[in-house]
Amino acid sequence: xxxxxxxxxxxxxxxxxxxxxxxxxxYRLLRDEEKFIxxxxxxxxxxxxxxxxxxxxxxxxxxxIVQLNFExxxxxxxxxxxxxxxxxxxxxxxxxxxDTFRYFTYEICKGKQDEMGYLLREIYLSEPPTDYGFHNxxxxxxxxxxLSEIVFYDLL
Length: 156
Prior knowledge:
Blueprint: H1 4-31, H2 33-45, E1 62-67, E2 72-78, E3 88-96, E4 101-110, E5 116-123, E6 130-135, H3 140-155
Antiparallel strand pairs: 1-2, 2-3, 3-4, 4-5, 5-6
Helix pairs in contact: 1-2
């Protein structure tokens, strides 16, 4: 069972924002990071849920902007309150110099032997996600390094 607001934020709301309004989102984010985070919390609170009583408080998003290589930048959102399966502890919005956007999650999952870990995925609007493997590490550096590898191979 997953928490509906966490799921809808990660797999519906954010991909729609990234793929439909990416350049505007980046402009607003770079103009005022605090206001951008506040707007994310408002969007979270406006997510339509079947049972409004199951709504959780918006998480305390932590944002970092990271240069992955000479062409790609990543905005990494940490969601420290993510604790259940299918909840993303990290979300990455990756964009390049041509305003091409990609959206990644690092979500809590179980491995083949029922061990807890994290699944790195790229989420799209109209096609199934691409999985980039199971990882044992929760470390944001590991997530960032994997993103760097993925976008590096796209440059070749």
